[in-house]
Write a structure and sequence with these properties.
Layout (H helix, E strand, L loop, with lengths): L1 E5 L8 E7 L2 E6 L4 H12 L2 E2 L2 E6 L4 E6 L3 E2 L3 H10 L1 E2 L8 E6 L2 E5 L8
Parallel strand pairs: 5-8
Antiparallel strand pairs: 1-2, 2-3, 4-7, 5-6, 6-10, 9-10
The chain binds iron/sulfur cluster.
Iron/sulfur cluster (SF4) binds next to helix 1.
Amino acid sequence: MERKLTCIICPLGCDLTVKLENNTVLEVSGFTCPRGKAYAETECTNPLRTVTSTVRCSDGSLVSVKTDKPIPKEKMAQCMARINQAVATLPIAIGDVILEDVFGSRIVATQNNTGNA
Ligand code: SF4
């Protein structure tokens, strides 16, 4: 089996071709750097995604958040369910951990929120 992918690691967007057999990568071609080869191998065997969203704060405002490392793509909906149920306690600074251990990642704030806005 052969899969065609566009590398999403950098703006160059190399066209990648992956030869697979029984979910095992046999060969990757089209990459310009090793990051593209690694992306293709992971995307075809265990695709990962960084999740970005917002969490409700204790005063009703929102704070933007993201996973601090990529999680399995198949867990994104469950990750969003955890994020949607969370309530962050103010004040919040960039990098504060909002949720621990969400499919091997932490949910961290990507903006400050003092609650005075
Ligand atoms: S293979 Fe390397 S150069 Fe090409 S898009 Fe991916 S990261 Fe960028």
